[in-house]
Amino acid sequence: MTTDTDDSILYAEHGAVALVTLNRPQALNSFTRAMHVALQAALQRASDNPQVRALVLTGAGRGFCAGLDLSELDFTPGEGLLERASPGPVIDGYFNPTARAFMNLRMPTVAAVNGVAAGAGASLAMACDIAVAAPGASFVQAFSKIGLIPDAGGSWLLVERLGLARALALAMTGDKLPAAQAKEWGLVWDVAEDPVAQALALAQKLAAMPTQALVATRALLREAGTRSFDQHLDVERDLQTALGRTHDYFEGVNAFLEKRAPVFRGA
Fold first, then answer.
1. Residue 253 contacts by C-beta under 8 Å, 6 or more apart in sequence?
2. Which is nearest to 245 in space by CA: 217, 212, 208?
3. Is the pTM value of this prediction over 0.90?
4. What local confidence, expressed as pLDDT, does residue 4 receive?
5. Cα separation, 108 vs 212, whole angstroms
């Protein structure tokens, strides 16, 4: 295992799995601008290492992530208040690039939601491919309580995960969604006493699988609602043709025919 520390973000490699920890426990891991920069650097570090084939995201302390640290905005009365207090530039310059980085990472991602995931923190958990939550964890769409809307992809991801009726009720009321109900509704894959351990085990399993096929599957499923059935059949054909040229395709078929365990390389 290799480790490194960058103040607000911890990075460690457990074999083929990168573990990224949001590390501002005193502030429930709420985001500063510098924290976004460090997180994006950690994602790039994992992506640049060909040996890393899955990633786990979790939080330090009792919370997963409380979204934006509001002290990053300036509410001091006076000239330029609207500009200084506007969340728009922080969203555009920091939260959106972070959300895009997770959604487009070249490897599978697993969120280990160790505590409350509020606001953009919930969005970040949903941006991961799979989520495992602690029994005491919860998901909160806190935006309506401060006169805002779900951001960092939250309004898109909520509907995708839960459907319009549940997404609307959660976003409008700002009520907590406990971990057990989040599993029942399909927001998380599982609830575990030690979500980090379970997420790492799941990520190790994914890391040993054909990475390109997993990432292609992710893209295919996410985009299914944007195409007609006939169009989707064509996309499936094209992706299958491309994957049919990979090492892992030939390895998987040969291993099946030879009745042995495959050794995938993610290539």
1. none
2. 212
3. yes
4. 54
5. 10
